[in-house]
Amino acid sequence: MDSPRPRTATAEPVTLGAGVVRRSTRLADGRELLYYDDPDTTLGPERAVDTRTLGARPETATMRLDVLTGDWITVAAARRHRVMLPGADADPLAPQSPGNPSEVPSRYDVAVFENRSPAFGPALREPVDAAPPAADPPTGRGDLATLGLGRTRTSVGRCEVVCFSPDHEGSFGTQTVTRARTVIEAWADRTAALSALPGVEQVFPFENRGEAIGVTLPHPHGQIYAYPYVTPRTSRLLDSIARAGHDLFARVLAFERASERVILRGEHWTAFVPFAARWPLEVHLLPHRHAADVAELTDDERDELAPLYLRLLRGVDALYESPTPYIAAWHQAPVRTARDVVRLRLELTSPRRAADKLKHLAGSEAAMWAWTAEVPPEEAAERLRDAVEGVIL
C-alpha cells in the first residue's frame, strides 16, 4: 500500500530567534520536514509538495538488552540499505530536481527531516497511518533499568537529518556565520520539540565529518537522535556528579580556564583541550552560564556561539592540508532528570594523529575502555591555538 501524501505544502510559518523562520510540511510517506530560512534569505515563502510515490515506512527497530552491562542495543536492519557516497546528481539531501527525486522537495537554507531508515522510530502513528505503531514500547525508566535475559523493547524515539546547506559538499565549518546561526536556532527548536515527545529521555545533536569517521554522504549535514533512555555515556557522568558534587561542571570550567589548554575565550563560551583528553585531537566547548541544552541558551549565547564555533572548526582544518575527520557531539542533559547539574557541552574528537595517520581503537581501548593517549593535551592545545589564531571569518 502506498503511503499517504501531504495535503498542504507548508503550515503557517513561525518566526524564531535571530529572525530565522520555520516552515513545516510532510514528505510523501508522512515524515515531518521543516525548513529553517536564514534571516537574509533569498527564498520565497512557497515550498513544493513532495509528489514522490514512496513505499511504507519501515517497522520501528527493536532494542535488545545486554544483561552484562545494562546497555540497550538497537537492531535496525533497514539501515543496511543507506546510500553510500553518491555523486551530486544522486544526492538524497540536495533539493529535488527532474533527475534527482531526493528527500527535500524545495530549495532551502537549512532543512530538517525524519530519517527514512532510523535507529529510533515513532511510538505512535503520527500522523495517522504514516508509520507502523510500536509493538512493545518501553513503559518507563524503571522498565528499561530492569535486568533480565532475552529482554527486548521497540526502539521508540526519533532520528532526524539536519541539512546545513543545499550544496553537495561541505560541513558545518564551511558555512557562513549567518547560516551557522540558523543551524543553532534549528538545533534549539528541535531539541525543545523532541524533548516533548512521549518516551524520549535524551536528545543528541551531532555531526559526523569525513569518510574516516564512516560518513556515507558528503553533503554538509548532521543528525539529531532522540533516545528512549539516558545514554550510557551520560549515565557514567551522572555517577561522577553524584561522587564529586553537583557543582562539578563549574569547577571543571574554572580549572580548565586557568590552564594552558585553552583554545578560545569568549564572553559566554570557552574552548579547551581537556586535562585527560583521550583522542589525538579533542576539544571541549562549554558555556560559562549553566544551560542544560541548546534550547536553554540565550540569544546572546547563540549569537557568540556561531562565529566562535566556526573559528574552532576552521582551525581544526588548518592543522593539515586536507580536511580533518571528526565527530562533533553536543552533549545535553537528560529530558527529565539532572537538568540542574548536567551542563550542555560540545565534545569535538578526531582520530587523526598526523597528516597521514589515524588512531585506531585496539584491544585495550575497544575491549576494556582503558585508554592510552599518544598526544599530550598541552601539546595539542598549543598547535590548535596557533591554527585558530590564523582563522579569519
Main traits of this protein?
393 residues; alpha+beta; HIT family, subunit A; twelve-stranded antiparallel β-sheet; three-stranded antiparallel β-sheet; 7 helices; 22% helix; disordered N terminus
Description:
By secondary structure, the chain is α+β, with helices and mostly antiparallel strands. It has 2 domains: 14-229, HIT family, subunit A; 233-389, HIT-like (HIT family, subunit A), CATH 3.30.428.10. The protein is 22% helix and 22% strand. It has 7 helices and 17 strands. The strands form 3 sheets. It has a 12-stranded antiparallel beta sheet with strand order 1-2-3-6-8-10-9-14-15-13-12-11. It has a 3-stranded antiparallel beta sheet with strand order 5-4-7, with no helix packed on it. The protein has a two-stranded antiparallel sheet with strand order 16-17. A hairpin with a 5-residue loop joins strand 2 (21-26) and strand 3 (32-37). Helix 2 (177-195) crosses helix 5 and helix 5 (299-317) crosses helix 7 (377-389).
